[in-house]
Every structure is written in structure tokens, then in C-alpha cells.
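re: that chain from earlier
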Amino acid sequence: MANLRSQKRLAASVAGVGKRKIWLDPAEQAEIATANSRQNVKKLIKDGHIVIKPTVVHSRARTRDLLAAKRLGRHTGTGKRRGTAEARMPTKVMWMRRQRVLRRLLRKYREAGKIDKHLYHALYQKSKGNVFKNKRVLMEYIHKAKAEKARTKTLHDQLEARKIKSKAVRERRAARIAEKRQAILAVEHEAAKE
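^ sequence. v structure.
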């Protein structure tokens, strides 16, 4: 059997693949052994005496299927877990995600004019203090706070209106009394003149 190492090396170089991907036809060994140039090797490849093997398939189909099933919650029971709960989903990451969600909502509400800067600051601090466990709770709190603020404003306005009204009544009464007093004094003065 002829030594075809150099031909295999040349063929690999010509084809741009590794030596393990080159197949030399055992029936054509004599002809392959005579090929000593890249030109000759190219001709042998063209004739089919030297064949470039196809790339080995490493299918990801099974992996894709498994990942799709895992997204549905399969194969994630206690027997499949290697790391601790903290290692699988760190509490810090969960905290950061939650804070970002809450802060984004607060920013959006402030820019839209739904909350003023004072309420924004108070809610920001509360979020940092772990008062709201999710976005829904924060939104409910905001709605309640706004309703409470509106109620107190209405009550305050009513109180102010009542104060103004009672002050006006008092002033009118005082004016009436002063008028009467003036009239009585005028009558007394007239009587004293006579």
C-alpha cells in the first residue's frame, strides 16, 4: 500500500478542511499516489477519487424540545435541581427587578402628571423600604392616596367655604346691630334735642 499522507494533506489544504474529512478511494490508490501537486489533487477531487466527507451532524432538536418543555414547567422538580434556590434565582436579582419595575412606574406617573413630586418621593422611599411587593399593590396604593388627597381637599374646601359663610353672616349681623344702635342713638339724640 502506497503512503498517501502527503496527498491527504494536500487535499485537506486544497479543500480547506481537516485531514479527517478527506476520504481517499482505496480502488484508486495507484492514481492518487502519483498526484504530487495541488493541480493534480484538484483533478482527483473533481473526478471523485478523493472525497470530502460531510460535516457530522450534531442535532439540537432534542435540546430544543427539552427547553420548550422546561418553559412549560416540565423537568424542573426537586430531583432535577442541582443548585440551591438562591443560586438558581438570587434574591438580589429579584429585588433589583422589582425595584426597577416600581421605579419605572413612579417615573412614568410623575412625568404624566398623575402624581406630584412630593408623593413621588414618598412612594420612592416606601418602595425602597419593601412596602410594595409588586406593581399592582403600588398602583392600588397610589389610587387610594389620590382619592384620600381629593377627599381631604374637598373637606378642606367645604370647611373654608363654611368659615367664609359664617364670617359673612357674623359681619352682616354686626352691621345690622350697629345700624340699629345708630338708629337708637339718633332717636335718643333727637329726643334729647327736643
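The beta strands are 22-24, 50-52.
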